[in-house]
Amino acid sequence: MSISPETLTERLVRENQEFKRLFERHQSFEERLQTLNTRHHLSDEEKLESITLKKHKLALKDRMAEIARLFTGAPVER
Fold it and tell me: 73 burial class (0-12, 13-18, 19+ CB within 10 angstroms)?
């Protein structure tokens, strides 16, 4: 079964509560990163926050990809 990534994401947001929660957190982290990226100078705390947000976003994205693979029946890459 071939589902476009955008359609798959939309469907998972509707049908899978964990995916929806992860997706919303990912978006909120992205919004905060965009706010930080508009600044010309970041404090040390903001630099640390930016690094931490990027790591959390990556972890969320990895988990969302795992859920999508399980949903579509695609093999898990290791």
Answer: exposed
